[in-house]
């Protein structure tokens, strides 16, 4: 089964606008500055945090020039890290993918929302989790968890003591309805490993776990806990690996409500990339005005 798609980017953006009250608060600059590339503004920063989808790659395709730009930033003495809401893969596979895409990141330079979720689970009491994700391939990072894949069997939902929404590949409206029904009958904790509503892939924008989590809120009134941008745990993991003042950090991403909002919530400067991500088919200026989420910089690609 393929990942469900959202055909209209405008609808995805409207959904982000609707759920904005559920996201962190932040302050923003009065206006934004258009720049040609990250090299034009890099001198003001020591650490550059990069989103993946829409900034480095679109699905399994690298964005042309992205690897060269990172090499250039390194040659300027800048530290770079990936901060991604891609929670469906173990770290080992993430690093293999970046190598296949032509990037030279080390494991310490990649932080994902999955890592933030796993850190929380390691500090929590064990329980049986119903999990939203494709379990077709081995996943050593989840081996010690008591998990049950949620499919079309209602028992898998009712037997769970909590739910992990990690990856939406294979998720269907039928499974979503079963989850909603089980939670209405018996409310339990919901942890969301990927807060994104959508992600840019070769087939278009795909609905991600955050989309289904907000549907759960709408239809059950329950409040999931989110791990990943724009929430702070993932950023805390990133800056903990570096000795740098927040004012010397630049967060670069394609999505106003995750990358830019999350970066500003942390006190970072932000740069919105518009050429390949969630705003590629929209007017970025209008989106900024509508959302009230204002980046420091706007550029077509890094």
Give the neighbour order of strands across the main sheet: 2-17-16-15-3-6-7
**Assigned CATH class of the largest domain:** Alpha Beta
What letter string, H or E per element, gives the SSE order? EHEEEEHEHEHEEHEHEEEHEHEHEHE
- The percentage helix is 25-40%
Number of strands: 17
Strand count, sense and barrel status of the largest sheet are: 7 strands, parallel
Helical segment count = 10
Query: Which regions have little confidence, pLDDT < 50, spanning 5+ residues?
Result: none
**Percent range for β-strand residues:** 15-25%
What name does CATH use for the topology of the largest domain? Rossmann fold
**Large-scale geometry:** globular
Number of domains: 2
Give the class from helix and strand content and strand pairing.
alpha/beta
Mean pLDDT: 94
Give the terminus-to-terminus CA distance: 33 Å
Oligomeric status of the shown chains? single chain
- Assigned CATH architecture of the largest domain: 3-Layer(aba) Sandwich
């Amino acid at each position: 089964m393929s990942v469900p798609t959202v055909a209209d980017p405008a609808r995805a953006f409207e959904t982000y606008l609707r759920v904005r009250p559920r996201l962190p608060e932040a302050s923003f600059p009065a206006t934004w500055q258009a720049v040609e590339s990250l090299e034009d503004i890099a001198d003001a920063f020591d650490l550059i945090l990069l989103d993946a989808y829409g900034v480095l790659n679109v699905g399994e395709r690298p964005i042309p020039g992205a690897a060269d730009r990172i090499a250039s930033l390194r040659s300027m003495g800048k530290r770079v890290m990936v901060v991604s809401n891609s929670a469906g893969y173990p770290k080992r596979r993430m690093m293999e993918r970046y190598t296949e895409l032509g990037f030279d990141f080390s494991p310490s330079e990649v932080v994902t929302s999955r890592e933030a979720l796993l850190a929380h689970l390691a500090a929590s009491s064990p329980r049986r989790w119903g999990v939203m994700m494709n379990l077709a391939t081995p996943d050593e990072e989840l081996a010690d968890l008591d998990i049950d894949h949620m499919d079309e069997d209602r028992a898998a939902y009712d037997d769970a003591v909590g739910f992990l929404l990690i990856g939406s590949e294979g998720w269907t409206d039928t499974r979503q309805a079963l989850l909603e029904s089980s939670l209405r009958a018996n409310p339990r904790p919901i942890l969301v490993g990927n807060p994104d509503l959508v992600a840019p892939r070769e087939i278009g924008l795909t609905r991600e776990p955050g989309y289904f989590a907000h549907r759960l809120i709408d239809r059950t009134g329950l409040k999931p806990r989110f791990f990943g941008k724009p929430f702070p745990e993932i950023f805390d993991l990133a800056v903990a690996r570096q000795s740098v003042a927040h004012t010397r950090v630049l967060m670069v991403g394609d999505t106003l409500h995750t990358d830019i909002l999350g970066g500003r919530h942390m006190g970072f400067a932000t740069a919105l990339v518009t050429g390949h991500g969630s705003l590629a088919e929209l007017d970025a200026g209008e989106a900024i005005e509508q959302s009230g989420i204002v980046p420091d910089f706007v550029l077509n690609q890094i």
